[in-house]
Amino acid sequence: MWEEVEPAADAATFNSGLGAALTLCTVADSAEGFSWGGELWRWASQQGFELDGLKLTAYARMLETYQHCKEVDSMIAAGASAGEAWIDHVLMGALVDAAGGRGHWQRAEDLWLRLVRDYRVKPTILQYTLFSKARMLSGRVLEALQVYDEVGEDGLNTSFVSVQGRAQLLLLMSHSSPSQPNLRKLQRAFDRGEKTIRREGNRHVAGDWDKMKRAAQRLQTNAESVRLRDVLIGWKAKTRSVMKQWPNHAGGSQYL
Prior knowledge:
Helices cover about 70% and strands about 0% of the residues.
């Protein structure tokens, strides 16, 4: 089927089209999508154009999404051995996010550790946020918070996604155990992150932020009246995490 596509005029055009097609195969999340992606990659490898690093990352992400982990590991090892530049923080984020999105937190942990320790990849705030999300989606709230401890608040407050993600985690921790130290940490996160959230200018983001603050106020006054569903506010936590299937715990239940 790929032979029916108009020939690309140059490598840039070829790589652009290849990247878009690989993304479609990835988000298809089906046996057909994986089959098409494999066929496309084999075809692309025979066209005489040099594949850029982002396309190698896109293919590795597709393989990770479809749980072909050994092939991903082989690609990483070969690329690192050859000193190829695509073994970087962009690859790290793509793979960790793919594994985390499948609920495979152990795989996300392994990828993170290997890329940081063995291949000296340096994550940015985006990769830290994706790693924290991978843990959160599997209900590992306290472990997800530990990721942000490595960043520090100054780095954290450069990203509204990170600010909101950490506040969601702190809200869950405070709901499980509404101790004064936990509630103070949560309030400090609101105080420090307020400017970052308002600067974003996104009404949906600001709306979720305000919902978190109201839930925190309720925890201060009557924690037992606040249920788990009341504090699953960010859309990732609310719709994609395993916590949406947990019992609707009351505040102070020590479920974490």
